[in-house]
Design goal:
Number of helices: 8
Shape: globular
Number of strands: 8
Distance between the termini: 54 Å
Order of helices and strands: HHEEHEEHEEEEHHHH
Strand content: 5-15%
Largest sheet: 6 strands, mixed
């Protein structure tokens, strides 16, 4: 079990976190005129995100987490806390959440470990804490290649006031379910998801075609608006309606797995570079 003191975060650490928030990575990358996915590939992406009948068999047995998996995830959480500089915060809970703790896992699902802390020694501003914690978590995850039974492990730090939106939440400390998921009963028709995925895939290809045809006059912000539209769609057609088991969430996952969000971000960076950079 991880024991963490309740001391205030040092000013130097807070300053470092602020610098991490302010930093930004390059999003430029190679461009290809070929479609990201064929109709057959899009169908495979949709099939991959359909709900399962059982929890992931490589991690769960009779509703309990494999003891070795639990032991290693706790060890990763301890490394994460110490390495990110959050070791002085009071840890309230360490949980396994997300699709791999439920019935919506797929071939590219991450094993999500959430460390819940009392962030008040840093600030009581929950929005600022969210930004600080997200930036440091993303930076740390990018530096490590942690895997668990064939799936990437992602660790995140959350303030204790932040809600857990996952259907399944499992306490790694206490080795028990905090919120046990149930097999979905509101199964979304595959063809409905396929139609939305195809529509958004075609929309991206249209943006990329127009950008390639006239890169100097293309509005680069259209790629950012596309990414924002996908996230809004997931929220409005997904979690705000029927949660994880919804057409919006499933379609978003399929598009993300197909590389559409990353490609839109890369094309946005390439567009701005072409229009503003001087070699």
């Amino acid at each position: 079990m991880i024991t963490v003191a309740r001391n205030r975060i040092a000013p130097a650490t807070l300053f470092l976190l602020a610098l991490l928030i302010g930093g930004c990575a390059s999003t430029s990358g190679p461009h290809s005129g070929a479609p990201l996915a064929s109709p057959e590939k899009i169908q495979a992406l949709v099939d991959d995100v359909q709900a399962r009948d059982t929890l992931h068999p490589a991690l769960w047995k009779d509703g309990k987490l494999d003891p070795l998996v639990r032991e290693r995830l706790l060890a990763m959480a301890e490394l994460f806390l110490l390495d990110t500089g959050f070791g002085d915060l009071d840890v309230k809970e360490i949980v396994f959440a997300g699709s791999m703790a439920g019935y919506l896992y797929h071939s590219r699902s991450d094993v999500d470990v959430h460390v819940s802390v009392d962030g008040s020694p840093i600030t009581t501003d929950l929005k600022l804490l969210f930004q600080l914690f997200n930036a440091r978590s993303d930076d740390w995850n990018a530096d490590y290649d942690l895997r668990m039974r064939g799936h990437d492990v992602e660790l995140f730090i959350l303030d204790q006031r932040s809600p857990e939106g996952s259907d399944g939440v499992y306490s790694l400390r206490e080795d028990r379910w905090i919120r046990k998921p149930s097999p979905p009963t509101n199964i979304v028709e595959r063809e409905v998801v396929l139609a939305d995925v195809t529509r958004y895939a075609n929309e991206f290809e249209g943006l990329r075609t127009r950008f390639s045809a006239d890169p100097q006059n293309f509005d680069c912000r259209e790629f950012k608006l596309y990414r924002r539209a996908l996230k809004d769609y997931r929220a409005k057609q997904g979690f705000q309606k029927s949660g994880e088991h919804s057409v919006g969430n499933l379609a978003y996952k399929a598009l993300r797995n197909g590389g559409y969000l990353k490609a839109a971000k890369a094309e946005q960076g390439r567009c701005f570079a072409l229009q503003y950079n001087v070699e």
